[in-house]
Each structure stands twice: as C-alpha cells, then as structure tokens.
Specification:
about 80 residues; mainly alpha; 2 domains
Length: about 80
C-alpha cells in the first residue's frame, strides 16, 4: 500500500472516532477552503520527443530489466 493511502486511511480512522460536531464542522471548513493544486507540467519539444522514443522502444521490445542494468553498471564501474 502506498504511503499516501496509509496516511489517508489513518486520517479516516480518526475521523470516524470523532463525535464532536463543532470539531467536525471546523475540519470540514478547513478541507473546503484548502485549494487542491493540480500541478500541470508543460513539457518541452525535446521532452515529448524523448517520451515518444521511449514508447517506441517499449513497443519494439528494446528494453532491459533493472537487474540486468544493475549488472551492466557494475561491470562498467569495475572497468574504470
């Protein structure tokens, strides 16, 4: 389970135990007034090209496992 899910579930568990209406209303106002930012990232032409090239590599089977990459890196480092 992702850390975010663990935190969210912990908060939900605590909320379920609260019976003070004023406290819950204050929390509701806090949540409603909190701006959830949607950080949109604008990619450059070069970044889009790299992503397209990566997608093409995946579709054509030009991939390597993480363990094989790690082995290759170690061999390369030993050669230096």
């Amino acid at each position: 389970m992702a850390q975010v899910d663990i935190i969210r579930n912990g908060i939900i568990d605590k909320l379920l135990a609260i019976s003070d209406q004023d406290y819950l209303l204050a929390l509701q106002r806090l949540i409603n007034n909190s701006a959830v930012e949607e950080n949109k990232i604008t990619l450059t032409k070069e970044q889009k090209l790299m992503l397209e090239m990566s997608e093409n590599d995946i579709q054509n089977g030009r991939v390597i496992s993480q363990s094989d990459l790690d082995k290759s890196d170690l061999e390369w480092l030993k050669g230096k």
